[in-house]
Amino acid sequence: MRAGRGVLLTGASGYLGSLIATTLLLGEPDVRILAPVRPGHDPLALLATLRSELIASGAVAPEAMLERLSFTALPAFGSLAALLPELAAFGIEEVVHCAACLDYFDEAALQAINVGLTEELLALAGSAGVRRFTYVSTAFSSGYVDHRIGETLHGDPEGDPTDYTKTKRLAERRVAESGIAYLILRPSIVIGHSGDGRYSGKRYGLYQLWSGIERLLCREWHETIHAFAPRERINLIHQDAFQNAFLAGWQQLPDNSILNMVAAEACAPTVRDLWVLWLEAVNRPRQTVFYDRMADIPSRAIPPPQRALLALASVNLEIIGHPWRFDRAGLDRLIAAGVTFPEATLATIEICQNRLIDQSAAIEKFLAKHEQRFALAG
Amino acid sequence: MNMTSVAAAPGAAEPPSAFDTGYYDLIAYVVSNAIAGEIMAIENYSEMVHLMPTTQAKIETVMQANEECKHILLLSKLGRTLDIGVQRRIVEPQWNTIRKHFSNAVARRDLPACLIIQDLMTETMAILLYRTLAAEAETDPRTAQVAAAILKDELEHLEIGKARLRELLAADPAAVHDALAWAHHRVMPELFAMISTSCHFLCDDLGIDCGSLSLGSIRTDIEQLRVRGLELYVETLDSLFDPKITNPLIASMSAYEGASNMFPQAASGAACCGSQAANRVPAAAASCCGPAAKAAPAEAACCAQTAGQA
């Protein structure tokens, strides 16, 4: 057994997993990480992503830190027990389970991965004598409920936005019932860094909407833009806030804790605020028509690109249109104890937005093409 | 209903010199794939004839199949005229997958699903293809002429399909909605995967350097084509269905492989984690297609938690 605490981290090739990996490498000098990844992933590319994030986070010796990270091939489902000797050799004491299926529309895959894989990992963790199992869930795992979402296991809701939330909720229950000490983390929608806007994730969440506008509404200028913009506040957290809260929760919270990693409601912008922020920066239509309800939008009458955008983003737009209310007592305690948690305000979200805009050739071309029009409009 | 005949005007056979080898390689690739789609259409229309409720509808369906035959002949002739090699068989596996789903629908006597697969989905993508090729400013005159002629037929096929589906919707909307969801999740990923210049085997068969193909030759790109395809598909669905029915289906397209560069969601938006997914290959990479890619399965997959998922 090697020196230092061994942590098995799943999902390290993804956005949150890579943030957790860098957080552990930076904040826990005695932690070594074993990261099972699918054979299709290029470890060098994954290392490059992690190296960039470490450097951006101010690491002075990123290579030395990365030496504490090892990749291993993820066995096929049903064969995870094959990892057992490796876990023993690596001295795995903790599991951080971040891998998940995010395909809202593939019910079988959601069940197999979010629930099935979690069950298999729990069995593996049990066999390996792991001390604690940390499960990265989602703030929305409650499904649609009309009460404030607590930091406890959820019951069955009235309904679920998608099978994604349902399977994450089921997985939480499996974790809690496993008999292994656990920590369940429930981040809301994570966006880029509050300081420089960097973001290495796929285009989900807010980035889905931004990228959709970039791709669909920046080929030509739209005089009028029809936007589904409920007045609900949208719960976003910055990646650095996520990292800080993760580390503090991991280090400080007692066993069998559940932590809602969510924004303070008072700081959160509305969906409409975000539309205005974007449209003023990029599309600059002469008129914007905001709709509180999706059903109010005259879908067939709006221009095809806007109609396509609306449809493509419809599921997430409907989710963010729901009045989600979260308890965040656990996070507030961590903040009171000194954890830095930069809230996502319009100003910090603008930093992320500007980063995306600055990196977009399509937007650059759009703005150049319509420079004169925008100059005249003042 | 009648396909416009495209007579080869004397002298028109000579391709303009402004188009280079890359352009003709691209046209060979696109035309070969179009022929494969037409072959599939013949088989689909032929297979669904017996499901049609009236003799008139059976006749009309056979005529549609016949028109698809003529398209193959036209496209083959275009290949000879331009002196480019074209394949007259199905090479790319997506067509066979769609055929399999279609046959499944026929076996279940699910006429709405058959009409949706062939007349709505496949014809909509055919319209996208032929509209692109028919743009005279971007393609050679001969290709534009042939594409315009075929486009006219495909637009008619779409309208015929819509009319048939309206009748079925009036009789049993729930059955048609079920058929739409079933067909959408099976066929649209395959069709969108083919909006690509990367292939499984076609370039090898044509003796083309797969990585050299560029839609820049016809002043468009994959992303633009996919966006146009999406808009066209949405337009087609909107002409028949309530957005409440279609929005979630269209939203699921953000998870298609290769959607990252176009739609919001995913760099490989679809998701999973297991080893089955290990060999996933970006089907829409505009230039790719090494041997490894050709061997790869196409399960939807991904793995790592991405926060933004609301």
UniProtKB/TrEMBL annotation, chain A:
<protein>
    <recommendedName>
        <fullName>Thioester reductase (TE) domain-containing protein</fullName>
    </recommendedName>
</protein>
<feature type="domain" description="Thioester reductase (TE)">
    <location>
        <begin position="9"/>
        <end position="237"/>
    </location>
</feature>
<dbReference type="InterPro" id="IPR013120">
    <property type="entry name" value="FAR_NAD-bd"/>
</dbReference>
<dbReference type="InterPro" id="IPR050177">
    <property type="entry name" value="Lipid_A_modif_metabolic_enz"/>
</dbReference>
<dbReference type="Pfam" id="PF07993">
    <property type="entry name" value="NAD_binding_4"/>
</dbReference>
<dbReference type="InterPro" id="IPR036291">
    <property type="entry name" value="NAD(P)-bd_dom_sf"/>
</dbReference>
UniProtKB/TrEMBL annotation, chain B:
<dbReference type="Pfam" id="PF11266">
    <property type="entry name" value="Ald_deCOase"/>
</dbReference>
<dbReference type="InterPro" id="IPR022612">
    <property type="entry name" value="Ald_deCOase"/>
</dbReference>
<dbReference type="InterPro" id="IPR009078">
    <property type="entry name" value="Ferritin-like_SF"/>
</dbReference>
<dbReference type="GO" id="GO:0071771">
    <property type="term" value="F:aldehyde oxygenase (deformylating) activity"/>
</dbReference>
<protein>
    <submittedName>
        <fullName>DUF3066 domain-containing protein</fullName>
    </submittedName>
</protein>
<dbReference type="InterPro" id="IPR012347">
    <property type="entry name" value="Ferritin-like"/>
</dbReference>
